User: Fold these one by one.
Assistant:
Number 1:
Amino acid sequence: MDENANAVSVFNKLAELYQEKFMNVDLYGDTFDNFCELVKEKNAAVFEIACGPGNISRYLLNKRPDFKITGIDMAPKMIALARKNNPEGEFLVMDARKIKGINKDFDAVVCGFCLPYFTKSETTQFISDVAYVLKPGGIFYLSTIEDDHSKSGYRKGSTGDEVLMHYYEASFLNDLLNTNGIDVLDVKRKDYILNETPVTDVVIISRKKNN
C-alpha cells in the first residue's frame, strides 16, 4: 500500500470534518505569536507546508496581515477549503516531499503536523529541502507528535479510517536541523487528549544560518 496516497485519501475524504475539529488553533497561539515576532520582514514570503484547510494560515494572517502566504497540501479538498478560508493567500495542490520544485525561496516556512506521515528517511530529506527553500536568516516553524520512533504504527481515528503514523523525538529533529544549518531557537510541548489517548506535541522554532 502507498501510505502517502492512503493518508491523502483519508484527509481528502474528511476535509470538512477536519476543518470543524481543528480550525481553532489557539492551543498553539503562543508559538504562532512567537513565530510572527521572529519574522521581522514586512510583507514576508511565508511557505506553509501541509496547510490542510488553512487553519494555521488564518491565525497567522489575523496576526500579520502583511504576510504573503503560499500554502500546499496533497489533498485537493483541503486546498479548496484553504482558499476559501484565506482568499488573500495562494494555495496549491503539491506533494510536501517535492518542495524543491517550487522554484522560490521564502522568508519563513511553517509545517504543522506533516511529519507523522513521513518515514524517517523522508523526514531527513524534508528538512534538507526546507533548508533549500528557506532564505538565510529565515524562520522555520515545525510541529509534530513527539514520542519514541519505535512506537510508530497504524492509528485508527474516530471515523474508523486508519493511517500509518510516525513519531519523532525532539532531539532527533534538533540534530537534523543543526546538520542542515538551521539553529534551534525555541522548543515547546503541548499535552492533550486525542481519541482518549494522551499525546504530546512538540513545536520547534528555528532560524537558518546567515552563511
Number 2:
Amino acid sequence: MDQIVSEARLRLLRMHYESKVGHIGGNLSCLDMLLTLSHRVLGAHDRLVLSKGHAAGALYVTLWSRGLLSDADLTTFHQDHTKLAGHPPVDGIPGLLFATGSLGHGLGLAAGLALAKRLKGEPGRVFCVMSDGEWNEGSTWEALAFAAHHGLGALTFLIDLNGLQGFGTTEAVHDLGPLADKLRTYRVEVREIDGHDPVAIEQALAQSRPDRPLAISQDRPLAIVARTTKGHGVSFMEHRMEWHYLPLTEEQYRLAIAEIAAR
C-alpha cells in the first residue's frame, strides 16, 4: 500500500494545484482510509458514501488509483462542464450513489442503504466516511440513533478525527469531548485506530481481528474512530486550519511534492 498511497498523494496535490482549488488538508487526512477501503476492503456488493463531500479530490484520486478514472479525467477537476465537481455529483462517477457535501446527511443515507439491504436480502456492507465536524449536526445523531435502534450490522462508518473544521478546532467550535465514549452509549461497536496506518485500518474493518476472533455483530453498526492529521504528509500543512481553504502556490506545490518524494 505504501507505493499506492505515495503516488495518490502526489497526484492529489498536482490535481489541486493545477485546478487552484483548496480543501487540501481534509483530503489528505482521509486519503489513507479511502485508499485502504477501495484497494483492500470493498467487495462487489459493498457500497460507499463519502459524507464529507469536500474530500471529493481524495475520492477521485482513489478511483484513479484503481483505473476507474483516467489522468485526463483528473485534469478536468473543478472545471466548467466537468463530471469531477468540487463536491461529488451523482452522475458519471463509478460507484457513487449520492451527491454529497452538505454535511450531516451522509450517515442517514448510508443507514438507509443498510436497511434496504436487509429488507431486500442483499449481501454486502455499507461504508460511510465522515468528518468529525459533522457530529456538530443533529441529523448525524438522529441517523446514529436510527441505525442503532434498527441494529444495522451492515453499516460501518469511519470518522476522520483530524480535530479541525472550517472555523477552528472541533473542540473550540463545539466540544464533544471523547467522541468514541459517546458513541459507545449507543448500541454501536467502536474501534479506535490510527487513521494513517493502512494495516490498522484494514484490521479494524475486517470481519474479525486477532484479539477477538468473533465476527462483527450482525445487529450492531461499527464505528471506526480514526485519529488523523489535517494536511497529513506535508509538514507545512499539518495541524493548520487554513489548509481547509487555501490553494497551493507554485512554490508551496514544489515544496510539498519534494517532501513526499523524499520519503
Number 3:
Amino acid sequence: MRRYRTVVALDSRKRLYLPVPFDPDTAWGPKPRHHVKARMGPLTMRGALQDFDGGWGLRLNPKSHAACELRAGDEVQVEVWPEGPQVDDLAPDITAALVADDAAQAAFQGLATFYRKAWLTWIDGTKRRPEERARRIAVMVEALLAGKKERPR
C-alpha cells in the first residue's frame, strides 16, 4: 500500500483524476495494467492506473461519489494498493506456472480482478484431482498466451 497527499487535477481532456507520484511498475512490478483500489478518507474506489499527460493517475468517474465531492485543486490524502490476487499470493503450483513464462505472468497480472478470481476458482475446484488441476493450470497459461481473459466454460 502506498500513502501520499496529492492535489486533484484535470488533464488536457478535462477529466478529473488523482495524480500518482510514483511509478507503479517499480513499486509493484511491471504489468500491462495496474488495477488498484484507493481510499480517500471514507471513500473507496477501484480502477486502473492510466497515463495522464505524461504521469500516472487514477481517473475519477464523473458519476462516482468521490468525483461528486472533489474538485480540481482539492488536496487529498490517498491510499493506493494493487487490487485482487497477486502472483506472489497464489498457490505454489500456479505461481510456478506463471513465473516460468513472462508473457503469461504479465497477461495474468494485467487481468481485472474478476477474471483472475474466475481462473483461480476454476483451478481450485480440482483440489482432489491433482492431474486435473495441473491440466487446468496448463489451459490457463495457454489461454493467457493466446490473449484470452476468460476461462473455458
